[in-house]
Amino acid sequence: MPATGVVVAAGFAKLAMELHAAASMAETVGRVLEYARRATGCDCAGVVLVQRGWGLRTAGVTDRRVEQADRLQLEYGEGPCVPVGREHRSVLVGDTMVDRRWPRWSPRVAELGLRSVLTVWLVTTRSTLGALNLYRSRPGQFTAADEATARLLARHAAVAIATVREASTLAQAVEARTLIGQAQGLLMERFAIDADQAFAVLRRYSQDNNVKLRIVAGVLVAARRFPTRSPAGAADGSPAIS
User: Fold this and answer.
1) What residue numbers bound the domain in which 60 lies?
2) 174 within some domain
3) What is the pLDDT of residues 107-140, one digit of tens each?
4) What per-residue confidence (pLDDT) applies to 59?
5) With contact defined as beta carbons under 8 Å apart, do 225 and 209 qualify?
């Protein structure tokens, strides 16, 4: 392997360990962006993540101009990240000043001083998680080598982001189960009912008042009362159980 290849491989090996050690989504995204700037020499970068309903949200940026470029994609409904999950794995914009694929987005991004754009999708075998966007202030600045590096980085980033997201979902599930168990215990003690009956009470209250089960349990444990919803949809008080 050529010397430069060894350096790149070593860099990605180190990044993989750093991403594995990241404890949160913000930390994971931050490390991806830091490495992207070092590896490609881009002036600024950002990560957008897919939300429910296939919308996009900005998860991290190195420059406020990137956040503005993301917002313009959502506002205009066009840009390298729209539509979400496009078939090809990367999009290269040689010069936003003259690119005609996105007639509203491109000139506005050029006005921000972002002329070269490289977008690579963050995908796993199961889903599209988002995209990594790289920008440079001058046109024609991203090379084939930069694109190859960005794609490799995107693979590492996608795995790390998926892992953090799954861990967060698992932690929330464990927390919810703990709260529900505590709420069941309160109801069992207060009304002399068994666990199944207590869970049925919680579930029925959740359904009748359109409040998530974990919220019902959390309020019950913390405040010894059931939550409800006001006409505006905000949590409101209801009779206490003790």
Assistant:
1) 3-168
2) no
3) 999 999 999 999 999 998 888 899 999 999 999 9
4) 94
5) no
Model confidence pTM above 0.90: no
Q: Is 176 domain-assigned?
A: no
Residues 83 and 153 in one domain: yes
* Domain containing residue 108: CATH number: 3.30.450.40
Which residues 6+ apart lie within 8 Å of 84 measured at CB? 50, 54, 55, 56, 128
How would you classify the pairing of strands 128-136 and 44-50? antiparallel
Encoded tokens for 4: 């430069």
Residue 184 domain-assigned (yes or no): no
Q: In angstroms, rounded to a whole number, what is the distance separating the alpha carbons of residues 64 and 48? A: 14
Number of domains in the chain: 2
Question: Following CA atoms 162, 167, 173, 179 in sequence, which dihedral angle do they give, to the nearest 10 degrees?
Answer: -150
Q: Are residues 37 and 121 in the same domain?
A: yes
Taking residues 54-71, what's their average pLDDT? 92
CA distance 22 to 11: 17
Q: In what order do the strands lie in the sheet with 116-123?
A: 56-61, 44-50, 128-136, 116-123, 90-93
Domain presence at residue 160: yes
Rounded CA gap, 107 and 104, in Å? 6
